[in-house]
Amino acid sequence: MTGRPLRADNETRTRDLNLGKVALYQLSYVRLHFLAVSPALSASGTVAHARLGAKIGSPHRVSDPRRSPGQAARRSPRVAPMRAWLNGTLLADPTEGAVAVTDHGFTVGDGVFEAVKTVAGTPFALTRHLARLERSAKGLGLPAPDLDDVRHGVSAVLADGAAGDPIGRLRITWTAGPAPMGSGRGGGPATLVVAYSPIEHAPRETSVVTVPWTRNENGATAGLKTTSYAENVIALAHAQERGGTEAVFANTAGNLCEGTGSNVFYVLDGELRTPTLAAGCLAGITRELVVEWCGAREVDEPLAEVRKRASEAFLVSTTRDVQAIARWDDRELPAPGPVTQQCADTWAAREAETMEP
Ligand SMILES: Cc1ncc(COP(=O)(O)O)c(C=O)c1O
């Protein structure tokens, strides 16, 4: 079915069934880690210096927090089940300050990032995500990250226990590094952070809310995955206040664009469609694969028209996979509709085949 528009008809359904049995990941709750530091880390006794004023990334010896439960508890009552790696070294406690207060990523959002799903500790589509990280860095005028370094960081945060997590999320962040306090850049060096945390499977269906703000498809950062996500924070809060889990943006032309952290697909006149990249949406990795695997027509149409006339719709993203939209503002939709179900099944089957599509 590659490259052909998916239609809500029997022919497509039969084709999908021919893909064979769908492998579904077991729905189970994630195992939470309550260790103050990972055993491997405390065994070596070497962690990154994670305090303000320290030279970033310089190794620093600390005492073993396991030596006395009481002492460990006083130092850090409960560390979030997260691991983080900064410029080459695992951090003892990712919740403590570690990046310079002058980092341009922190002061003005001058950075790019990736969110990558892991399944039992193995990243999904990491090569595609790293290619997008490079493209985003280039688009922002940042130097290219050394992808061997990034992979090293990924291995470091996954090494200790991630294999026991059904799914998890890697967050790779690459910023301009220390700089003056204004918009002008300093000389770097750039900051590279890889963080990991287990997550839960997203629900199979959800509600979305159209927000009054628009995506600027002509903006300098359109289509780049930058760390300047404050617009998304406001939009998502707006949607959540109205009972949604995702906000949907139109662009300045009034056409459907994307969600705060997802791309949108819909069925109109029996055809699966999604906005073009020219609409200003992020070139989502999940979107790219759904277009390839399920065949969707890329077309730009007014959001109001899509919301009124679509017979079904769904969100796609790294953490949602294919997620049916059951309610879009005041409109109820079948969730999952037949095409959405076919795409979800195809997604599960293809993801089970390879972790590097
Ligand atoms: C703005 C935006 N659009 C779309 C997506 C979906 O992209 P992906 O499928 O690569 O997760 C994301 C991911 O976080 C996003 O931030």
TrEMBL record:
<dbReference type="InterPro" id="IPR050571">
    <property type="entry name" value="Class-IV_PLP-Dep_Aminotrnsfr"/>
</dbReference>
<feature type="region of interest" description="Disordered">
    <location>
        <begin position="56"/>
        <end position="79"/>
    </location>
</feature>
<dbReference type="Pfam" id="PF01063">
    <property type="entry name" value="Aminotran_4"/>
</dbReference>
<dbReference type="InterPro" id="IPR043132">
    <property type="entry name" value="BCAT-like_C"/>
</dbReference>
<dbReference type="InterPro" id="IPR018300">
    <property type="entry name" value="Aminotrans_IV_CS"/>
</dbReference>
<protein>
    <submittedName>
        <fullName>4-amino-4-deoxychorismate lyase</fullName>
    </submittedName>
</protein>
<comment type="similarity">
    <text>Belongs to the class-IV pyridoxal-phosphate-dependent aminotransferase family.</text>
</comment>
<dbReference type="GO" id="GO:0016829">
    <property type="term" value="F:lyase activity"/>
</dbReference>
<dbReference type="InterPro" id="IPR043131">
    <property type="entry name" value="BCAT-like_N"/>
</dbReference>
<dbReference type="InterPro" id="IPR036038">
    <property type="entry name" value="Aminotransferase-like"/>
</dbReference>
<keyword id="KW-0456">Lyase</keyword>
<keyword id="KW-0663">Pyridoxal phosphate</keyword>
<dbReference type="InterPro" id="IPR001544">
    <property type="entry name" value="Aminotrans_IV"/>
</dbReference>
